[in-house]
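Lecture notes, continued. The same structure-token format from the folding unit now serves as the input rather than the output. Read the line below as a description of shape only.
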């Protein structure tokens, strides 16, 4: 009888352990972020936000959420500051597209056959990798790209249609840098401005988003020339 009782207790203990392990495993799976891959149905004339993770790094859910918060704030800021009831549009069906690169983090800031100023190797590599990951769906006539990569780069940069931001910007958006989070949202707004076609201002107005005003976001401005460009852009409606 004692042996039977002891066996029943042991069986109950083991079952409890199995259930506990199963629960912990399920909780871990719920907390483990999963790559979305490319948005299968991005809206025409929209900004696509993409977070690329190098092959030797892990997808960070906090970075994904921060990038989404950043672009959401910028749509509102541009609309208010432009003053014509226009802004750029984002993809609420997949606010941030997350993808795994086949390249390690160090690759993104290496020369890799690029020419010209070394500080823009990161930009060129980011653009090439984005094109590779998106394949035939990459189209700057339909989309503006804001791409975050969890890899070192000399600087974030933007040009017509495409913006690339390195790991420091992801860190900044998540409060890991000495500057406040709004400064890093402003930085994205500045580089995205270049993707919309806005240049640096000749008057070097320190309040202008497209000069150094991005460091004081949201307390920065769009100048008249900026507004003319944005109001004429097909991406603002």
């Amino acid at each position: 009888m004692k042996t039977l009782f002891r066996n029943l207790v042991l069986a109950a203990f083991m079952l409890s352990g199995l259930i506990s392990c199963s629960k912990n495993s399920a909780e871990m799976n719920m907390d483990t972020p999963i790559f979305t891959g490319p948005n299968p149905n991005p809206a025409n004339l929209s900004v696509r936000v993409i977070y690329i993770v190098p092959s030797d790094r892990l997808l960070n859910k906090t970075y994904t959420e921060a990038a989404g918060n950043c672009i959401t704030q910028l749509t509102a800021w541009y609309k208010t500051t432009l003053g014509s009831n226009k802004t750029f549009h984002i993809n609420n069906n997949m606010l941030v597209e997350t993808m795994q690169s086949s390249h390690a983090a160090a690759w993104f800031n290496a020369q890799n056959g690029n020419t010209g100023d070394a500080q823009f190797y990161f930009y060129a590599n980011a653009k090439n990798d984005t094109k590779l990951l998106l394949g035939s769906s990459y189209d700057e006539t339909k989309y503006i790209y804001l791409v975050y990569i969890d890899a070192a780069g000399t600087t974030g940069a933007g040009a017509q249609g495409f913006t690339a931001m390195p790991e420091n910007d992801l860190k900044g958006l998540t409060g890991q840098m000495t500057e406040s989070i709004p400064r890093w949202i402003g930085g994205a707004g500045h580089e995205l401005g270049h993707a919309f076609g806005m240049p640096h201002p000749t008057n070097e107005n320190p309040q202008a988003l497209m000069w150094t005003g991005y460091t004081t976001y949201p307390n920065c401005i769009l100048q008249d020339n900026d507004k003319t460009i944005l109001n004429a852009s097909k991406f603002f409606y």
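Point for the exam: Residues 1-31 form one domain.
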